[in-house]
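FW: tagging you since you asked about this chain on Friday. Here's the raw sequence from the shared folder, copied in full. Didn't touch anything.
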Amino acid sequence: MRESLYVHMLVTTREFDENGEGLVDKSVNLNTQGEM
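HL: got it, structure written out here
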């Protein structure tokens, strides 16, 4: 489950990065919270 979530976050971050809407930070934050 944890690995799946991590991969999902990576893909999401990549999508946001292409858009350049500044949502990458949000994705990283979600990933960090999930680990904690």
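FW: The two ends are 14 Å apart (CA to CA).
HL: agreed, and The mean pLDDT is 61.
FW: great, closing this out.
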